[in-house]
Amino acid sequence: METRAILAAILMAALLIIYQTFFVQAPPEAPEPAQKTAEAPQPKTPAATPEAPAARPAPTVKPGPVAPPPPLPRPPQRTVPVEGPLYRGVVSSEGGKLQEWTLRYRGDKPMVIVGDLGPGGLMVAPDAGAAGEVVPMTVAPDGLSLGRDRPSGDLVLTGDVDGLRVRETLRFGADAFFIDALIRVENVGSAPRTVTVTLPWSTRTAWNEIPEKFTGQHPTEVVWSADGHIQRVSNLLEVGDHARGGSWVGVGSVWYLGALVPKTPGFTLVTAVERHAAERKNGEKEPLGRVTVGVRATPTIAPGRAWEGHVVIFVGPKEYERLQAHGLEGTLDFGGFPVPRSWGLPTLPMEWLGVPILLLMKWVYRYVGNYGIAIILLTVISKILFFPLTVKSLRSMKAMQALGPQVNALRNKYKSDPQRLQRETMELYKANKVNPMGGCLPMVAQVPIFYALYLALSVSVELQNASFLCFGRFFGMDLWICDLASQDPTYVLPILMGVSMFVQQKMTPTTGDPRQAKMMLVMPFVFTFMFLNLPSGLVLYWSLSNVLQILQQWYMDRSKPRRAVREAKDA
Asked: Do 246 and 379 belong to one domain?
């Protein structure tokens, strides 16, 4: 028993020794310091004395490319407010784009909607062919407040783009709707750089979801000046992608404009369209998209040199004098006569007549202080100037009316021989010394003038929120004409216009077929329906013109018996 116990103990001890020897790993030795392990073996040197240890030779540095400096951290976006008597704006440090621009012009008029309408900020592409990106910049000072004591002020934005130093100075004026953008790009590298500098302005093509108060500010056309000619495209999706030389480019509506005007050479006008379709509620797809216009320069900058450019950014109402200061008066669309210019046919440029009438209306306003009264005075003046032609026209129509029975007799007699009818009718007119065109030609001469007056009132932004006979508001409705640029909310003025037109038709001598005269009586009802939604200023002009025509006709009818009595006494 003891022998077996001793043998078991010996076997267990042997098994433990064998296990520890072959199966248990030794613990790892502590590693050498990192500096020593990474150290390369050095050649042997003479033994150093205790007083002066041996010095190691300096490592040899091989020449190679210099690593570029680390990129500067992107400055965080900041916004700076700008206040003036004519506008309220917010400028972003991202390229100096406008985050907000609200005109203080006959009420608050927003001209910038973030993501939908407005400038995109200064974009710089550091090399030819590279895509341009908005430059992140720092901006100073922290805000501007302009007024009488401070008529102008600058915001200075600075930034860096791949070895280029960019500075943009935005200069604001207290009494101006434009911004001077002074751009400077400096090449701090050792090689020439061809850079692309762009100032864009973008807008959506459909505005169905924009509130009604924004109507009149959102763009409805792209317009530019190239080679001395004004080009405009009303369908924004048909603008196309182009780069052309020219004086300015912009997007605008009837009354408001956002435009870019290069003041230094080297800029081109660019347009681009991004198309997509949106699903409407009824399942139909409506063509939508985004249009971008802008000015672009691609200068080559030598090392250590800088390029400078100057662009005027106009964001405001289409007042003729303000537009003319920067050559933008062509953005006012006076159209053509007798057909629109878009038809491609020879037309009479109506700005020849529309601009003088527009300036005359503003001159009258300076003295009377009410645009409604100014419209009335312009209409009266035009009727007085054309009164001799009107008299001649009415007399000719009266003479032809007197010959009406004889003309009808000739029609019955020669109804199967049109050539003989025409010859006999002309002989009748000649025998009675009546010119068949005498009733039309004087009126034709007046049509361009009245049409130009109509257009001048149509494009006049000054009529916005201009009251004529405004008695206040009643249950949320204006009483009566509180905005000459809007329709009459009571529809009283269009109805009065229709009544005056009906009376004028009844008093006007009829020279043709009686059935045709009856058909003409339908016109007042058609015009009344057309004028229901037109601006009150236009309806006022048309109504007063009809009333003055009625008075002239009444005067002619009243003076005819007196003239006959006078001629009888003389005989």
From this structure: no
